[in-house]
Design brief:
2 copies of one chain form a homodimer.
Chain A: H1 5-21, H2 26-42, H3 44-60, H4 65-71, H5 75-90, E1 98-102, E2 108-115, E3 118-123, H6 128-139, E4 143-147, H7 153-169, E5 177-179, H8 185-191, E6 200-204, H9 207-216, E7 229-233, H10 239-251, E8 260-266, H11 267-284, E9 287-290, H12 292-297, E10 302-303, E11 317-323, H13 326-336, E12 341-345, H14 349-358, E13 363-368, H15 375-378, E14 385-387, E15 395-397, E16 403-414
Parallel strand pairs in A: 3-4, 3-6, 4-5, 7-8, 7-12, 8-11, 9-10, 9-11, 12-13
Antiparallel strand pairs in A: 1-2, 2-16, 14-15
Helix pairs in contact in A: 2-5, 2-7, 3-7, 5-6, 10-11
């Protein structure tokens, strides 16, 4: 692949920054984060003006309203970004954590957490990702290359300049935070092949973006995102819990990856439970797409097509299927799930344990909403994304997931025999 | 990509096996491993006959001697394979390890180690990898798809059949261990794209194989291998230690990835130290390719070309360079190293600490041989390979690196607000 010399220069600067960042002290990184938080507030007007340009351009292009909303920054939003930087200051720095042991020959092996190096973030229209990702990467000692969507380019330019200048003034290495100002697709395609410069690439956004990165990148990827999450209401499930958990999982924030898409109902309780659940969902305006049995019980349900199973609606739509037992439920999840978050509603101990053990997903719940799969709600304090892959990180990724290990070994003239 | 239906069938069988293997008990997996060890001995003759076919075919094809050696099995070799299976029995099973915490709302989160799922191993001519990889995958609860080199196909067919049958007789799921009997390149290329069937692909072998897999695979890869390892003999290095560590790192087993390729010498001690080192290496038959200063000191050194820096000789050849100080040494390692294993010989505390902190590699040593970078020597008991990437696993990979985490969450009607 022919790389753009400008992009190689950005990669090299990131590598050089990463080399120094790797042994920056927590105290110095925190000083930089506080300065970044202050700088955002100091440049509020400038940020809002740039954002206004992006928003106007988006409206002119006829971009859909939900996207324009995600793009739009307000004064309150800028204060929230600033606050979130201060929260990152309070998170424990994983760099330098570790354990050590001594081998029988006296060799001391110290397994130490170190930064990954250079992290590339590829995301879409939300400008706050620029600030979040930069903060988490800085705190964990990584240089970051940010590539946001073209719709947010003016906002991102100002945001990244403001925080990057503030961090450099506090002594952080130049180019610790870089934005790809050129949003040409060509550049992302090159970025995905920059092994030797980029240590990991994290796509955040829609399924299309994520799949492109997974398929095309030769740089190691952390796959985030897509969640076709299920709830199984067991024969021995408590109906009140079932209604409240399914309702919460589906409606609390339908546009996010840990929202529920499908409810599976044990056939022994379907005719009793489904009307209770259905009424609550229907009243709230949730469209129900059911299997034949569901439709026979709920007259207002429409018939699900085969592609409904496996669809991440990200909307007030739910698919519903009556199943024979927990085995059929688990088979369905195995076939259509994306290994994100799955929950069972049951009072039966053994069924609960089977579900926990046998369902393969980042987060498996008993009697709880799938919406808990979140770095903040897990107690990690911040989140760079939710990994749906198994390698390196699974589930909500906090600062620790932005690090790797290094073995430091203390010898005294040790040779192998 | 169009997938071969046979390959998809293999992938599906592996997935189904993995689903059951995930919750096989340690006791049952150990029983299977012991049966596999017995079966290898019981089928010794059959294995030797199949191996003889491979060896004869290789000799006829004029394949080079070192490769034929790696391919050849002996009765002793089969006993060693059998013993190594028994050793895996003694290793701790990482599956089910974990930690848990309780959130302020009472939600109990249990972070549990679980198998990766389906592991694909792509390797070259050594038939013992077939047995090693199968054993480590089984012990860690993973289904494995083995794809060995075509040169070893007859040996691999018998080996995989013998151990697979033995494990199934002990109740392990069918298809826990599968060999790709078709060694067509097409199949490997498809295997590398089988996301949804294969959770991770681990290439083991030469740099060519590894780079192909890294570049072409859309399945997550663990990169193993290439080690351009350096030793830096500091101004304050002890000469005896320097000679013994460099000699050991270079000559103990030159064909492996943790062997030394380059020695860097502080200019203040070069004229005194190099003759001591050079003589010992020269006597042993090691070719020395030096920088100008090295050649001026050692008349028997040949002049290094620029491509010598960065070359993994895997042979009795060493490159040698005189550097100004530890900074120049670290810059050289930064430029030419592969982040595998690096060592410094010094008595100076601060220089040692700087080297440990600032050199970015899986294993960084003070006064010890790079040859220690090995699962067994680190105390992990067994090794599936040495990772030179930063994601998921770094350095020697044992059983734990063949697992991922899963969150099991115990709620009591928990919903988010």
């Amino acid at each position: 692949m022919d790389f753009s010399p400008e992009l190689i220069a950005i990669g090299q600067k990131a590598k050089d920054a990463a080399r120094k960042l790797a042994y920056s002290s927590t105290a110095n990184k925190n000083k930089a984060l506080l300065a970044m938080a202050d700088a955002l507030l100091a440049h509020e007007q400038e940020i809002l003006v740039a954002n206004q340009k992006d928003v106007e351009a988006a409206i002119q292009k006829g971009i859909k309203k939900s996207l324009v909303n995600r793009l739009t920054l307000t004064s309150e939003g800028i204060h929230q970004m600033s606050d979130s930087l201060r929260e990152v200051v309070n998170l424990a720095d994983p760099v330098g954590e570790g354990e050590f042991w001594t081998r029988p020959n006296g060799l001391r092996i110290q397994r130490t957490r170190v930064p990954l190096g250079v992290v590339a973030m590829v995301y879409e229209a939300r400008p706050n990702v620029t600030v979040d990702a930069a903060a988490l990467c800085l705190k964990s000692g990584n240089a970051v290359i940010l590539r946001g969507g073209s719709e947010a380019i003016e906002s991102n330019k100002v945001l990244s300049r403001v925080i990057s200048e503030a961090s450099e003034r506090q002594g952080m290495p130049t180019a610790s935070i870089q934005l790809l100002e050129n949003t040409d697709r060509q550049w992302v395609q090159q970025l995905m092949k920059m092994n030797g410069y980029v240590d990991v690439i994290i796509p955040r956004g829609g399924a299309g973006l994520i799949q492109t990165v997974v398929k095309e990148s030769t740089v190691p990827v952390i796959e985030t995102g897509t969640g076709v999450c299920h709830a199984f209401v067991d024969q021995e499930g408590n109906f009140d819990k079932g209604v409240s958990i399914v309702f919460n999982s589906k409606t609390h924030r339908p546009g996010v990856c840990n929202a529920l898409e499908t409810v599976l109902i044990h056939e022994a309780v379907a005719s009793e439970f489904l009307p209770l659940l259905g009424e609550k969902l229907w009243d709230y305006g949730v469209e129900i797409r059911g299997c034949e049995k569901t439709c026979a019980i709920l007259p207002y349900a429409s018939k699900a097509r085969s592609e409904d199973w496996g669809t991440e609606y990200l909307d007030l739509i739910i698919s519903a299927k009556v199943v024979k037992d927990v085995d059929e439920a688990m088979d369905h999840i195995y076939q259509y799930g994306t290994k994100h978050s799955e929950t069972i509603i049951t009072e039966n101990y053994t069924t609960a344990q089977r579900f926990l053990n046998e369902v393969d997903a980042a987060a498996v719940y008993v009697n709880a909403s799938t919406r808990f799969t979140d770095g903040g709600r897990f107690g990690f304090g911040a989140e760079i994304g939710i990994s749906t892959q198994k390698l390196h990180a699974r589930g909500p990724m906090g600062l620790r997931e932005l690090t790797t290990m290094k073995y430091m070994i203390y010898g005294e003239d040790h040779i192998v025999t």
